[in-house]
Specification:
With about 550 residues, the chain is an alpha+beta fold. Among the domains are: about 55 residues, no CATH class; about 160 residues, no CATH class; about 70 residues. It has 17 helices and 9 strands. Helix 8 packs antiparallel against helix 9 and helix 13 runs antiparallel to helix 14. The longest helix is centred in the first third of the chain and has 32 residues. The termini are far apart.
Length: about 550
């Protein structure tokens, strides 16, 4: 009698009865990922979950008027604020489906599964965006439902709006006039100069609409390492030349006393890493100062000379040592690539109160200005010249401008300095207070043997409440806005791709970099050959 085959089912969760459970979970996750990557409109309108019923109602409020008060006059309420509601009906279920013969086998093949899931996610995103954009235009055109309040503006530019830059600019300015008429604050309509100049042509005409900004790297201090080493801000280098000298100091003074710490993050071969950092920072400096990328420059030569003079032998030897008792990971003192935007990191924290890295305004030399590394990425909205809905464009632009997320307004718009409070803060604060009562009660009722453990929990929760009282209150804090306006914004520039960023190596520049790092060519040879390749690329582009 033949024996039964013991079959392993890789799609079954914990040997369960459903042989495709995990396959479907992976497939669903990939569909949603593709949807998020290709979706445009999801974050540009209010989202609401409806669990019951076929419609939802949204409150619509009128406006109030302000007046001067006369002494002795009773304040009885002079405003009658009108109210109404807008009812939104639920559409049918939006789906994207595909039938695959022998689904389990198809899911087991990565390339096949990935392509199916991607196409379904893209289809859902496209249909979602199309529908949402149409609704936005119709909503903007609809009449106001509060008596005597404005509504229903339509910005039109004619059939050539899609291909005529001047008409598009006029449509944008027409939006501005409409905002005046509808009391949209002026300070919320003007881009910061660095972004405005980027989307303005030589004739002063706007050719694109910035809708989001992200990126920009900077050097920051790890407060944990900073505090445990007993350093002061006078110890921290603030330019690349001094950073190289600081690595030497660490090599000579700190290696043995602080074996679990390191001066920089993710670094094994320090001179190689520092040279690549020099390339990154130098490329950014050239872009920020409107120079073509080049290397035959006294500043770049000074940076490389500082690297050559740097001692790091004891650091690298320490990095090779491993221990079964301790983690091989070494906490860095200085992070070289902290993300500056959209994380709403607060650069003004006080050490000891939280673990937020502190910004270092790292320059190239003592005499150069501070710029954030690699520049920022700017997401723009352009008009497709093949559009058949040219009359709708102005209305859509108006809608997009009015609905830019508050977090992005803080960074894109000049004069937008109002902190943004966390809408869930009050609810979280009340929950924390209730939890504190619970921790306190547990401590009060604990036995003598348990007191110490409960006391530790109670103290930790009190510290958490103290730390989060301000940090959880805002999604964009007053401290971040101040630091953005005073430090980050003046150091911003729009990053542009270069041959150093290319994934291929058609220019041969990456090979040249590696040859220099490997000691196969001198600095003079590197500079001469690199600048020659860059000149050839510039001539080809012309």
């Amino acid at each position: 009698m033949a024996e039964n085959l013991t079959l392993s089912r890789p799609g079954a969760q914990n040997l369960g009865s459903d042989p495709a459970k995990m396959f479907r979970d992976v497939f669903t996750g990939e569909v949603l990922t593709a949807f998020d990557e290709h979706n445009i409109m999801k974050d540009w309108h209010k989202m609401r979950t409806i669990t019951h019923g076929k419609s939802a109602s949204f409150a619509v409020m009128g406006r109030a008027n302000a007046r001067y008060h006369t002494a002795g006059e009773a304040i009885l309420g002079s405003n009658k604020i009108a109210a109404n509601e807008r009812t939104i009906n639920v559409d049918n279920l939006l789906i994207a489906d595909v039938a695959i013969y022998d689904l389990e086998d198809a899911m087991n093949h990565y390339d096949v599964r990935r392509e199916y899931s991607k196409q379904l996610g893209v289809a859902l995103a496209k249909r979602f965006d199309e529908t949402t954009m149409r609704v936005a235009v119709l909503a903007a055109r609809s009449s106001g439902i509060i008596d005597d309040e404005p509504g229903g503006s339509v910005i039109k530019g004619g059939a050539t709006l899609a291909t005529d830059g001047e008409l598009l600019a006029e449509a944008v300015f027409s939006c501005s006039q409409t905002f005046d008429e509808k009391d949209v604050p002026e300070q919320e309509r003007c881009l910061n100069p660095v972004f405005r100049d980027f989307v303005t042509d030589q004739n002063g005409k706007i050719f694109a609409l910035p809708i989001s900004v992200s990126g920009a790297y900077a050097f920051t201090i790890n407060p944990t390492v900073f505090g445990e080493m007993g350093l002061t801000m006078d110890d921290i280098p603030t330019n690349f030349i001094d950073l190289c000298a600081f690595v030497t100091r660490w090599n000579d003074e700190f290696v043995e006393d602080y074996p679990n710490f390191a001066p920089l993050d993710s670094t094994e071969k320090y001179k190689d890493r520092m040279f690549r950092l020099a390339l990154r920072e130098w490329k950014g400096y050239c872009q920020a100062t409107n120079q073509d990328l080049h290397f035959d420059d006294p500043i770049f030569r000074e940076m490389v000379a500082a690297i050559d003079a740097m001692r790091c032998d004891r650091i690298e030897e320490s990095n090779k040592k491993t221990s079964d008792e301790e983690s091989d990971y070494k906490q860095p003192l200085i992070f070289t690539g902290t993300w500056m935007l959209n994380s709403y990191y607060d650069g003004d924290v006080t050490f000891g109160k939280d673990k937020t890295p502190k910004l270092i305004q790292m320059t190239l030399t003592k005499d150069t200005a501070f710029y954030l590394g690699q520049g920022v990425e700017l997401e723009l909205m352009f008009v497709n010249p093949r559009t058949t809905d040219s009359d709708e464009i102005g209305t859509l632009l108006e809608y997009v401008i009015k609905n830019i997320r508050d977090e992005q307004k803080v960074e894109l718009v000049a004069g937008c300095t109002t902190p943004i409070e966390n809408p869930w803060y009050e609810e979280q604060r009340k929950q924390n207070e209730a939890d504190l009562v619970m921790y306190q009660k547990a401590y009060d009722e604990a036995s003598a043997e348990e007191k110490n453990a409960y006391k530790e929990q109670l103290d930790e929760f009190k510290l958490y409440m103290e730390q989060s009282a301000e940090s959880d209150r805002y999604t964009v804090s007053p401290a971040y806005i101040q630091r953005y306006q005073e430090v980050i914004l003046p150091a911003l520039y729009i990053g542009k791709p270069t041959v150093l960023d290319s994934t291929d190596n058609t220019s041969g520049l990456k090979t040249l970099v590696q040859r220099y790092i490997d000691g196969q060519i001198t600095l003079d040879q590197f500079i001469r050959e690199a600048d020659g390749k860059l000149r050839m690329i510039q001539l080809e582009n012309q």
